[in-house]
């Protein structure tokens, strides 16, 4: 392996290590901090494993082969962890216990199949097409799917996030991590294709070690700079100028006034009845800037997510209609603004811990 490749991969791994140490020192008390730290450790393992892949051969020492396999398998976990991290970052109510069993099964079986395939690959043992599909293609699709899902969650969650300060940082972090993972998985996909297509005349070319290592380095540079940019280090912050205080106070007044307007239009005009209502659309109705609307709802009305904000008004009206009227439940759900009955039932049960039918029956019996 060329010296240049070793240097860049070492720099990438060392930067990630510094970041992991920092997170474990200052954020180990939070679930988000622990998840981020573990993800970074798996990224380090993956980078080291990818580097060893270029130098290990069937003739290498058994200990080196198993070390390479172990590092690669730990690195594979980063795809799953990146998906969990994106959920944790964008969903304030997310808890790891909410992850359905099938996703754990997908992740576990993918790692087992990959481990089997890796063992045969390192010892240059030929496998049938069916065995290659089971050990390599299946695991490749599952792990690649988690990477793509992480990017999707980042993009989808960004739209409804009302915390202005965290929107850009979250997207940068998840996008960079997922992009790095996609590169690692992309290279591995080429090798899987070549293994299956052996003898057919078709062959793909993976990225060269130098391109891979340089790319990995620059992605980790972005991550390294990002983590320190978002942390408020008092030693590098200068005193706040009076003008800035005045400007901040004026903005707070504008946000407070805007929150009153938002509450008025939501209660009087019932804008939440519109299934397609978005933050930009609400800002346009109020003739205001989108970022001010986000800050007003977040800072002065207590909502961190626009969906939760809409659900507050929709569920409140639903509860009132269930008790005071005999209108069919399906009509109520669609009339208060839900685009589908499934989303209506899910939102209602999340707030009241029972279905609308159960809620109506319980409160009518009490009356």
Mean pLDDT metric = 79
Secondary-structure-based class equals: mainly alpha
Unreliable segments (pLDDT under 50, ≥5 consecutive)?
A: 230-244
CATH fold annotation of the largest domain: Rhopdopsin 7-helix transmembrane proteins
Query: Can you summarize the main beta sheet?
Result: none
Instruction: Quickly count the helices.
Output: 14
CATH class of the largest domain: Mainly Alpha
From the alpha-carbon coordinates, what is the Rg to the nearest angstrom? 26 Å
Whole-number tally of structural domains: 2
Beta strands, count: 0
Order of helices and strands: HHHHHHHHHHHHHH
Estimate what percentage of residues fall within beta strands. Answer: under 5%
- End-to-end distance: 78 Å
**Shape by Cα distribution:** elongated
From the structure provided, what is the oligomeric state, counting identical versus distinct chains? Answer: single chain
Q: So, CATH architecture of the largest domain?
A: Up-down Bundle
Q: Classify the helix fraction into a percent range.
A: over 70%
Pick out its properties:
mainly alpha, 0% strand, Arc Repressor Mutant, subunit A, Rhopdopsin 7-helix transmembrane proteins, 367 residues
Task: Explain how this protein is built.
By secondary structure, the chain is mainly alpha-helical. It folds into 2 domains: 3-232, Up-down Bundle (Rhopdopsin 7-helix transmembrane proteins); 242-366, Arc Repressor Mutant, subunit A. The protein has 14 helices and no strands. It has helices spanning 3-26, 31-53, 62-90, 101-122, 129-160, 164-196, 209-229, 242-268, 279-286, 290-301, 306-324, 329-335, 341-352, 356-366. The termini are far apart. The model is unreliable at 230-244 (pLDDT under 50).
């Amino acid at each position: 392996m060329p010296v240049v490749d070793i240097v860049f991969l070492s720099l990438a791994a060392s930067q990630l290590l510094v970041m992991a140490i920092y997170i474990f020192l200052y954020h180990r008390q939070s679930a988000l901090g622990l998840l981020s730290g573990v993800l970074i450790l798996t990224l380090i393992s993956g980078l080291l494993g990818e580097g060893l892949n270029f130098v290990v051969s069937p003739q290498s020492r058994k200990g080196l082969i198993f070390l390479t396999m172990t590092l690669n398998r730990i690195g594979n976990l980063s795809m799953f962890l990146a998906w969990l991290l994106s959920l944790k970052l964008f969903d304030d109510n997310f808890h790891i216990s909410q992850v359905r069993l099938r996703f754990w099964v997908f992740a576990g079986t993918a790692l087992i199949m990959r481990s089997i395939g890796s063992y045969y690959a390192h010892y240059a043992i030929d496998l049938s097409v069916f065995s290659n599909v089971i050990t390599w293609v299946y695991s490749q699709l599952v792990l690649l799917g988690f990477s793509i899902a992480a990017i999707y969650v980042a993009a989808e969650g960004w739209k409804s996030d009302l915390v202005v300060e965290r929107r850009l940082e979250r997207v940068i972090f998840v996008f960079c991590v997922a992009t790095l993972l996609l590169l690692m998985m992309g290279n591995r996909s080429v090798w899987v294709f070549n293994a299956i297509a052996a003898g057919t005349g078709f062959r793909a070319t993976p990225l060269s070690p130098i391109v891979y290592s340089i790319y990995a380095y620059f992605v980790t540079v972005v991550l390294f700079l990002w983590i320190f940019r978002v942390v408020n280090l008092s030693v590098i912050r200068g005193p706040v100028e009076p003008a800035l205080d005045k400007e901040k106070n004026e903005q707070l007044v504008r946000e407070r006034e805007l929150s009153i307007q938002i509450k008025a239009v939501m209660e009087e005009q019932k804008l939440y009845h519109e299934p397609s209502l978005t933050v930009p659309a609400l800002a346009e109705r109020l003739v205001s800037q989108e970022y001010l609307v986000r800050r007003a709802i977040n800072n002065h009305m207590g909502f961190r997510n626009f969906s939760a904000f809409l659900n507050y008004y929709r569920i409140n009206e639903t509860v009132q209609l269930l008790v005071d009227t005999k209108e069919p439940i399906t009509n109520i759900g669609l009339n208060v603004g839900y685009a589908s009955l499934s989303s209506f039932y899910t939102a209602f049960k999340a707030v009241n811990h029972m279905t609308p039918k159960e809620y109506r029956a319980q409160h009518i019996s009490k009356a």
